[in-house]
Amino acid sequence: MTLPALKRPIVGIDLGGTNMQIGVVGPGYKLIGREKAKTRAKQGHQAVIERIAEGVRIACAQAGVPVSKLGAVGIGAPGAIDAATGMVIQAPNLRWTRVPLAKMLQEMLKVRVAVTNDVRAAALGEHALGAGKGVRDMICVWIGTGVGGGLILNDQLYTGHFNAAGEIGHMTILTGAPPGGTSLEQNCSRTAIVDRIIRLIKTGHKSMIPDMLEGEPLDGESVKARIVADAYAKGDEVTRLVVNDAAKHIGIAVASLSSALSMQRVVLGGGLTEAMGDALVRPVREAFASAVYPHINRKCEIIKTKLEADAGVFGAAVYAMRAGGKRG
């Protein structure tokens, strides 16, 4: 993907269920201003969108760029998106259903707004400026609160006939599991990994994680990605058992996709990948190599994100610049 020179700065926003990252992307596709804020989804979509608008103003002030001089604002939002209208059709992490995000934010900022899925945005960012630069065919898999995906095929973001491609986390991997435990996301997200670790600890399996929490409760809020990464690095048996099992399933799922699509590269990202690095990438790569077909597809590179937490910010900006909110 060759990016043209920016005529005017563009704001990229990575909207998550917990935090939002806002960046002003200027000449040379460099971040020249940024803001981070809590999403606070429980307050409702109106409050969240007002907080986004305020974050854009703060980031622009830091960059020395009036909001009125922006070329566009791009947002990567979780869930199902109607890209033509910029509506968030359904976003469980935000508790949103049919929220006209682009329209509402555009009215607040008086700047064109384009909305896409958050991991699609991250895929665009990595493809244009990060770990996928120069690659024509790649898969992005983001492992965090859920498991998200994005596909780049023939140097373009692939969205499919119904504009819904890339929902890797919702692939069924365990057909015989009880409801709520069949998909990749339900078994391999950071949320699922932490839940399983906690269940094992509470049923008598020994682990160093309770001591690492320093008095905090043993729950999903306290056991963060860095705790999992630290316990894994120190050889905690429970953590290694659960993480390696999840990595195996991720590797096999990606191998299935690559067997069908013959991909050049797979980029792993998200909070757990950022925290663990090669400790997570390595078992994914091993499981991939054992499952992919034919053997020539083993040449597919599996690497971690280069842009890390900024992938969604850059990708949302690239999306706004290239797609103009019409597709993807």
Rg over alpha carbons: 20 Å
Detail the poorly predicted runs: none
Largest beta sheet: strand ordering: 3-2-1-4-8
Our measurement of the CA-to-CA distance between the termini, rounded to an integer number of angstroms, reads: 16 Å
Largest sheet: 5 strands, mixed
Order of helices and strands: EEEHEEEEHEHEEEHHHHHEHHEH
CATH topology of the largest domain: Nucleotidyltransferase, domain 5
**Overall shape:** globular
- Which structural class best describes the helix and strand composition? alpha/beta
Please report the total strand number as a whole number.
Answer: 13
CATH class of the largest domain: Alpha Beta
- Give helix % range: 25-40%
Q: Whole-number average pLDDT?
A: 94
Number of helices: 11
Q: How many domains would you count in the coordinates?
A: 2
The CATH architecture name of the largest domain reads 2-Layer Sandwich
Question: Tags for this entry?
Answer:
328 residues, Nucleotidyltransferase, domain 5, 11 helices, alpha/beta, 5-stranded mixed sheet
Q: What is the topology?
A:
Layout: E1 10-15, E2 19-26, E3 30-38, H1 45-63, E4 72-77, E5 80-82, E6 87-91, E7 96-99, H2 101-109, E8 113-117, H3 118-129, E9 138-143, E10 147-153, E11 156-158, H4 184-188, H5 190-202, H6 209-212, H7 225-233, H8 237-261, E12 265-269, H9 271-276, H10 278-291, E13 301-304, H11 311-323
Parallel strand pairs: 1-4, 4-8, 9-12, 12-13
Antiparallel strand pairs: 1-2, 2-3, 5-6, 6-7, 9-10, 10-11
Give your account of this protein's structure.
It is a single chain. The chain is of the alpha/beta class. The protein has two domains: 10-125 and 310-323, Nucleotidyltransferase, domain 5, CATH 3.30.420.40; 135-306, Nucleotidyltransferase, domain 5, CATH 3.30.420. 39% of the residues lie in helices and 22% in strands. The protein has eleven helices and 13 strands. The protein has helices at residues 45-63, 101-109, 118-129, 184-188, 190-202, 209-212, 225-233, 237-261, 271-276, 278-291, 311-323, and strands at residues 10-15, 19-26, 30-38, 72-77, 80-82, 87-91, 96-99, 113-117, 138-143, 147-153, 156-158, 265-269, 301-304. The strands form three sheets. A five-stranded mixed β-sheet has the order 3-2-1-4-8. It has a five-stranded mixed β-sheet with strand order 11-10-9-12-13, with helices on both faces. The radius of gyration is 20 Å and the shape is globular. The relative contact order is 0.16.
